[in-house]
Amino acid sequence: MKYRYTKFTGSELDDLDLEDLVSKLSDLLLSSGFGNPHGMDDEERTMQALHDAILDALFNGGVLPEDTIERLLGDPADGDQEDARSKLEELIQLIIERMADQGYITTPPDLNAERERRRGDGGFGRDAPAQVTFEVTDKALDFLGYRALRDLLGSLGKSSYGRHDTREQATGVETTGAPKPYEFGDTLNLDPASTLLNAVQREARERAALDPALQPPASRKIHVRHDDLMVVQGEYQSSCATVLMLDCSHSMILYGEDRFTPAKRVALALAQLIKAQYPGDALKVVLFHDSAEEIPLAELGRVRVGPYYTNTREGLRLSRRILDRQRKDMRQIIMITDGKPSALTQPDGRIYKNAFGLDPFIVAETCAEVAACRKSGIMINTFMLARDYDLVSFVRRVADICKGKAYFTTPYTLGQYVLMDYMDKKTKTIH
Question: Which domains does the chain have, with CATH numbers?
Answer without folding.
Answer: 18-136 (no CATH), 143-163+239-423 (3.40.50.410), 168-236 (no CATH)
